[in-house]
Amino acid sequence: MAVTRHKKRTGRRILATAAGIATLGALVAALPAGAAEESGASDWTYGKKATGRTVDVQLLSFNDLHGNLEPPAGSSGEVTHRHEDGTTEKIKAGGVEYLATHLREARENNPYSITAAAGDMIGASPLISGLFHDEPTIEALNKLKLDVSSVGNHEFDEGAAELARIQNGGCHPTDGCAEGTTYEGAQFPYLAANVTDEKTGKPVLDPYFIWEKKGVRVGFIGVTLEGTPGIVNAEGIKGLKFGDEVETINKYTKILERRGVKSIVALIHEGGAPASSAYNYDCDSPGPGDGISGPVAEIAKKLSPQVDALVTGHTHQAYACTIPDPAGKPRTVTSAASFGKLYTDTTLTYDRATKDIVRTAVASANHVVTRDVPKAADMTDLITKWNALAAPIAGRPVGHIAANIDGRGSSAYEKPLGNLIADAQLEALAPADKGGAQIAFMNPGGIRADLVHARSGTEATDGIVTYGEAYTVQPFTNMMTTVDLTGAQIITALQQQVSGSNEASPKILQVSKGFTYTLDMTKTGAARVDVSSVKLNGLPLDPAKTYRVAMNEFLSGGGDGFAALGQGANKLVGASDLDVFIAYLGAHSSADAPLTPPAADRITVVK
Question: In whole angstroms, how large is the CA radius of gyration of the chain?
């Protein structure tokens, strides 16, 4: 894909005037030979000068929206607040009608305000957005006046060519535009500094963005996690290379400095794990950055000191920490959980004399997108429009449940909804002509929501599961596959859950009924799997025997670090995971006999 320029937002963001263009031309001319071509970036400028030594720049940020236009249901729509006495409470949060109101109120009386995001704005979305290839979410982000976003791994769910369309506009090449709609594209730049074309070496989208107002200039560099190829469908990213986050950001930091931009923010779709799930937890206790671990903590320690702040994502956690840079100076690192439940407000004090951020003056905090504020009318209209287009499909009942069946909202390794999905996949692919499956595995990251018992929308009673709700749980529409794996390969896959790339943050496969084993988390690496305990229907798994194993195409391609699952032979492709899930709900539940949550008794966990 070629690097592209972006659409102008009338009255808010304009390209430079004639005088501004001349100034920009002078800047480019002053660059070392080839630097302008290397950057591949376009500038949005305001073109006016300002007076006074310092000015406070407001940076509003969020991440991992995943197309959640409507308030997320169940535990997916809650944040944890920690009180001073140590007690906690759950607060309902999220929904773009409320997010828009909170952001607009936050911008009041802040003439220098920037809104940025750290990726996964789209992908793995509820039906209202996913059904229309996330065009509704981009429309909402345009209305939110988002200035810039990094790409995340989910921006590549439908492939690089589709991401280019999301940026630039135009109807979907297969499905076209929804009735009565057009798609103009994102009015903000998606940044992908570390995603390059293998042949040309050039970024597939702009690597950086320069925000300017009245002489105040702030540069943004956007990257996704280097490990993106291991967590997206390989077919969609053929020909792309995903580079090291630190090397890439440091490279473009130097380019921005050569362009006279010394105030720099990194938008990184990679995150960390705070010691507490409370959004207002002090992760600088007992010392700066002591309360957070994970990839972003290591990245922060290595990034150039010239980078003034890090806005991060991917792990769906909430934190506003201070991790010292390599020079020992304090530097803010933030993340606003997910699904639009929080936003971060960071104050960057800009020194006009040095053109840099006064780092000691940086302050940052996360704020809850509460639902006790007026809804933004334009967002309500947007949701109403797209819901009307989706209604013929979304509201159709497909099953009944007797209680909440937790998936995304479960913190346990074995999730009730994970068991249900694995059972559905086993049942669908067990017939000889469908694959002859004996075992089914489901990746936990592919479970995007809970099944909630309480009625919602147009549902007549509690317990109804609609097509839209089932879609929200399984939004990727991965095709199901059945492959041959030996018992030894299956055991290796179980070990890969808790070793190698997954050792620090285990990815525990959800397993179908009849498959049992013990996971001993007091041990380390592959030893955490008790090999002698692995059984199928009560019999020890035979390392030399070949089994037919059902899984989605993401797993059978070796995704999520499960290289052993990618070694399967005699692959047979079946129906989509969503179709399989819906068929199971319909076959095993009714209004009179709703499904009960499956018992979580397949994986014995020793802690």
Answer: 24
